[in-house]
Amino acid sequence: MMISKEEKFKLILLGHSEAGVGLMTDLINESFGISQFDVVKNVDLPDCYFVPSLYDIHYFSDREYDFEANKPFMVQFGVQQSHIRFILFQHFNELGGISQEDYIPVRHRLSYVAPSASYQEGVLIEPQAVVSSFSRLGFGVSVKRSASVGHHASLGDFVSINPAAVLSGYVEVGEGSEIGSGAVISNNVKIGKRSLIGAGSVVTKDIPDGVIAYGNPCKVVKENSIWKDV
């Protein structure tokens, strides 16, 4: 994605966690050359550590930030978890009028995305990640380092594919679901909305909405209560 000279001046991160801010500042700097960031916090937590010689980072509360004055600048999420990204999108859409079109997709140069694959705004595709032919990634999807998304896969909004997970061909993952590190999803399997697949699981059958499932073979264990109040 091309961004204008004005947009290159800085980028806004919405929400913050140590992992999220640290990861996004490095990836955005490598991808776009941006070194100035505004981090807008929706909760009163300590500022995250950063290296002053690398980046110029300013922290703001969501109530004090001037969203209108900063409309020219693109945004991304400053957190990693699917349900938190969902909450933050709703919050900043209502508070600051931030829409999906304002979020920049971040694709690291050492990732591979097939020419026939597609992704929406706000995605994060980390180094060594693979997105195969005719796959579709929804808004705010995160494909972590060394994860592989197979051909003709469909990932709903806010899905997280964690490091080294492997999705085979024609896999469907519903909105807000997370696939744990090193999990393997077999061909044609459907993962429901807002479910969590545990790390290292081998999934050979469909998984319903709103559950935590893990194991080899992967089985439903309990309700995914983290989404209960969202």
UniProtKB/TrEMBL annotation:
Record's InterPro entries?
AcTrfase_PglD-like (IPR020019), Hexapep (IPR001451), Hexapep_transf_CS (IPR018357), Trans_hexapeptide_repeat (IPR050179), Trimer_LpxA-like_sf (IPR011004)
Which keywords appear in this protein's UniProt record, sorted alphabetically?
Answer: Acyltransferase, Repeat, Transferase
* Record CDD domains: LbH_AT_putative
Record-linked Pfam families: Hexapep (PF00132)
Question: Superkingdom of this entry's organism?
Answer: Bacteria
Family annotation (SUPFAM superfamilies): Trimeric LpxA-like enzymes
The keyword Cytoplasm is annotated on this UniProt entry: no
The record's annotation in PANTHER family points to: ACETYLTRANSFERASE (PTHR43300), UDP-N-ACETYLBACILLOSAMINE N-ACETYLTRANSFERASE (PTHR43300:SF7)
Q: What does the sequence similarity comment in the record state about its family?
A: Belongs to the transferase hexapeptide repeat family.
What protein name applies here? Answer: Sugar O-acyltransferase, sialic acid O-acetyltransferase NeuD family
Q: Which organism is it from?
A: Algoriphagus faecimaris
